[in-house]
């Protein structure tokens, strides 16, 4: 059977040379317009609601290892990454997850049961059920997950909904998950060794991230009377810098941070390494939002740990320090193919 005009040797740049964002731009050619613009995809209506679908994968040697992630945490993190995408679309209801398991034949049943136990614990806490999936032999262990949820189409969170003058808000601090990963890998990125309490906080943030459905509820509670629903946002799975870039590019407005506005974890002293982890460590799974200033103020008052970190400017551009327009400290966020 002949498949189109396929040639024996496909040419072009490698995925490492392209990077994830450029790859997604190329893949848009195979999908309807604007299909790749948000954290999840909208499907048909379910009564007054619409279904949201999102897929993500955790691959051994890329996203986890025996040294950093016990089996239960692999399952929890794989599910949490997908539920976080539902929260980043504004979902308030989770249907559940489908799971494709890939693993070498020598993988123990105990590892698989513990991984699925982690997913089950996550769903018991945040709603939804295990809907089914597939199992296959693979050279490494991996969990490819699809999450399904429901959203009110009049209360969507979308990356391109931002406008100049909006305040930038985060649902919580950034950098702890990246720090936890570094510590589990035997690294010491900070100038001063963390205390046992700080160590435990960082490892917990990495191994048991929390999808921020509570932040979605806080958005609804804090919405000023008569305020039209217009919320720009995404989750910070690939780092705060990447999230700000996605909102900026989709909205056409530059993210400008308050001087000293990085949402650093509490209890740590000033540390340039922690600032970079805050921007680029990734896997914090907080919501990064752009809101009308009055709504932003009410939201921060409603949700413990939330804070305003800057605003959207009037023109496009990469994230910068607002008062000076100088670039943020060097970095680029997580790159999947490097």
Overview of the structural elements:
There is one protein chain. The protein has ten helices and eleven strands. The protein is of the alpha+beta class and 338 residues long. The chain has two domains: 127 residues, 2-Layer Sandwich (60s Ribosomal Protein L30, Chain: A); 165 residues, PurM-like C-terminal domain (Phosphoribosyl-aminoimidazole Synthetase, Chain A, domain 2), CATH 3.90.650. A six-stranded mixed sheet has the order 7-9-6-10-8-11, sandwiched between helices. Helix 4 links the parallel strand 3 and strand 4. Helix 3 packs parallel to helix 4, helix 5 crosses helix 6 and helix 7 packs across helix 10. The longest helix is centred in the N-terminal third of the chain and has 18 residues. It is globular and about 55 Å long. The mean pLDDT is 91.
Please name the defining characteristics of this protein:
six-stranded mixed sheet; 60s Ribosomal Protein L30, Chain: A; 338 residues; five-stranded mixed sheet; globular
Question: What's this, in brief?
Answer:
This protein is an alpha+beta fold.
């Amino acid at each position: 059977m002949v498949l189109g005009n396929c040639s024996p040797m496909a040419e072009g740049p490698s995925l490492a040379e392209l990077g994830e964002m450029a790859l997604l731009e190329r893949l848009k050619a195979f999908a309807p317009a604007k299909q790749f613009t948000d954290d999840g995809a909208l499907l048909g209506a379910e009564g007054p609601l619409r279904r949201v679908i999102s897929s993500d994968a955790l691959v051994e040697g890329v996203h986890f290892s025996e040294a950093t992630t016990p089996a239960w945490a692999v399952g929890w993190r794989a599910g949490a990454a997908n539920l976080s995408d539902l929260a980043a679309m504004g979902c308030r209801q989770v249907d559940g997850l489908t799971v494709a398991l890939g693993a070498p034949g020598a993988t123990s049943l105990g590892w698989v049961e513990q991984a699925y136990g982690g997913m089950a614990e996550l769903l018991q806490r945040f709603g939804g059920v295990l809907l089914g999936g597939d199992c296959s032999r693979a050279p490494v262990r991996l969990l490819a997950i699809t999450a399904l949820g429901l959203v009110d189409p009049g209360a969507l969170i979308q990356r391109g909904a931002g406008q100049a003058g909006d305040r930038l808000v985060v649902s919580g601090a950034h950098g702890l998950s990246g720090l936890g990963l570094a510590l589990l890998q035997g690294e010491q990125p900070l100038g001063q060794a963390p205390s046992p309490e700080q160590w435990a906080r960082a490892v917990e943030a990495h191994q048991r991230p929390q999808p921020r459905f509570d932040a979605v509820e806080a958005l609804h509670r804090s919405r000023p009377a008569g305020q039209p629903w217009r919320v720009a946002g995404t989750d910070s799975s690939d780092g705060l810098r990447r999230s700000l870039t996605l909102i900026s590019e989709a909205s056409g407005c530059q993210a400008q941070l308050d001087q000293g506005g990085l949402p650093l974890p509490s209890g740590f002293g000033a540390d340039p390494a922690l600032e970079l982890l805050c921007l680029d460590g990734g896997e914090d799974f907080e919501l990064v939002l752009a809101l009308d200033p009055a709504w932003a103020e009410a939201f921060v008052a409603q949700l413990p740990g939330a804070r305003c970190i800057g605003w959207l400017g009037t023109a496009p551009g990469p994230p910068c320090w607002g008062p000076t327009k100088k670039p943020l400290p060097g970095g680029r966020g997580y790159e999947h193919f490097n």
